[in-house]
Design goal:
Layout: E1 7-11, H1 21-35, E2 39-44, E3 57-60, E4 63-66, E5 69-75, H2 80-89, E6 93-96, H3 101-112, E7 117-120, H4 138-150, E8 154-157, H5 160-168, E9 175-177, H6 194-199, E10 208-212, H7 221-233, E11 239-243, H8 249-255, E12 260-263, H9 267-275, E13 279-282, H10 291-298, E14 303-306, H11 311-314, E15 321-324, H12 329-341, H13 343-357, H14 362-380
Parallel strand pairs: 1-2, 1-6, 2-3, 6-7, 7-8, 8-9, 10-11, 10-13, 11-12, 13-14, 14-15
Antiparallel strand pairs: 4-5
Helix pairs in contact: 1-14, 7-12, 10-13
Length: about 375
């Protein structure tokens, strides 16, 4: 069997209605599979005005807005019409990308038909509760995730550090890596524009500390803000450049009244915005890979990040950036100050990060998922061990 023989049914809670790193990776994967001759059907909630056009055939799943986070939707069920579509498509492998109710149903549907099931892990859902004063519920969420992932034949994680977390949590015994790539046409140091920075009020000699991502509390906005407060108290000269949008923007603006908020950026504009930073500060612990970290590295921007899944697999401490204990505001401030005050350090670590980013090719990375599909299909064949 070859990649062209694959018929993949992909279930995800968000394919294109809100733009984030996970669904952009899924769309790139589908594009690669289609280019290799495979057939793919994507089953996901939809909205009238999605963030971007989907890659491939998208079948709408019944859903409703999540209370308190209305931009996201909760998949409800595999409706009769979806079941008929599945039966007509007749997949030979099922891929689930979010541990929601519909994915549970999809796993049951596939197991009944003895189809191989691959689950991709895109975020650390159990850690979200920390940002809503509900950390006591983490063991419960972890147990629910373990039950879901153990019913799949294999998992793929975006980084070795995240794969090790899944092993430690006993989520599955077959865990591989589906890393992430970076578009070097978009994310490149040549995208840096001093004119664009000036238009935002950032001087040529000012050091811009960047935040990149959706403006939601689970991205560590509180730690970011507390760290900037420390730097102000220490009298460290800097500017804050925030790239992104989200429901916590007003809170973030209130905490950082002197910051420059450039809003949502995409394509070449996003590459220009990232290259405009002098250092990226990523305090989040929820990422399984850290797309924003890789994008900054590709733009020759050193990174100060939480020593957590994702960033640990990308950033070499004291080589291409700094890895700091999660939540350690004082240490974050000291690491950022070192970059603010030392131009040579920024340049040296930026070059090291760019060299590391060159290893991430989307085609090679996505083919590894196709190869995993093929392996799981072989293992399901009669006589396979």
């Amino acid at each position: 069997m070859k990649t062209a023989d694959l018929r993949i049914a992909l279930f995800t809670g968000n394919y294109n209605y809100v733009r984030d790193g996970a669904n952009q990776a899924l769309n790139r994967l589908v594009g690669h599979l289609l280019a290799q001759g495979a057939q793919v059907r994507v089953y996901s909630p939809t909205v009238d005005e999605p963030a971007f056009e989907p890659t491939g055939d998208l079948v709408s799943i019944p859903s409703f807005p999540i209370p308190g986070r209305g931009e996201y939707r909760f998949p409800l069920a595999i409706s009769p019409s979806v079941k008929r579509d599945l039966a007509k498509f007749s997949p030979n492998v099922v891929h689930v990308a979010s541990p929601d109710l519909v994915s549970h149903r999809a796993v049951a549907w596939a197991r009944k038909r003895e189809l191989p099931i691959l689950a991709s892990v895109h975020t650390r859902f159990e850690t979200y509760l920390r940002y809503y004063n509900m950390a006591w519920g983490e063991p419960v969420i972890e147990a629910m995730l373990r039950r879901f992932y153990r019913r799949c034949d294999a998992l793929v994680a975006p980084s070795e550090s995240m794969a090790q977390v899944l092993r430690d949590q006993r989520m599955n015994y077959d865990i591989g890596i589906w890393s992430r790539g970076v578009d070097r046409e978009v994310f490149h140091p040549d995208r840096r524009s001093l004119e664009w920075r000036r238009g935002l009020g950032i001087g040529d000699n000012e050091v811009a500390i960047g935040f990149l991502g959706r403006l939601v509390m689970e991205k560590g906005l509180d730690v970011f803000s507390d760290t900037i407060d420390e730097m102000k108290r220490d009298g460290v000269p800097h500017k804050v450049l925030v790239i992104g949008e989200g429901p916590a923007r007003s809170w973030f603006e209130g905490r950082l009244p002197d910051a420059v908020f450039a809003g949502f950026q995409t394509g070449a504009d996003l590459g220009r915005a990232v290259a405009a930073m002098d250092v990226l500060f990523n305090p989040s612990v929820t990422e399984t890979f850290g797309n924003v970290t890789l994008e900054a590295m590709a733009c020759r921007v050193p990174v100060v990040a939480a020593a957590a899944t994702g960033s640990e697999s990308l950033v070499a401490d004291h080589v291409s950036g700094r890895l700091i204990r999660p939540g350690a505001v004082r240490q974050f401030a000291d690491a950022l100050e070192a970059y603010v005050r030392d131009d040579t350090l920024r340049l040296t670590h930026g070059h090291a990060g760019e060299a590391r980013a060159q290893a991430y090719s989307w085609d090679r990375i996505n083919q590894s998922v196709a190869d995993t599909y093929l392996r799981l299909i072989r293992q399901k064949q009669p006589g396979a061990s």
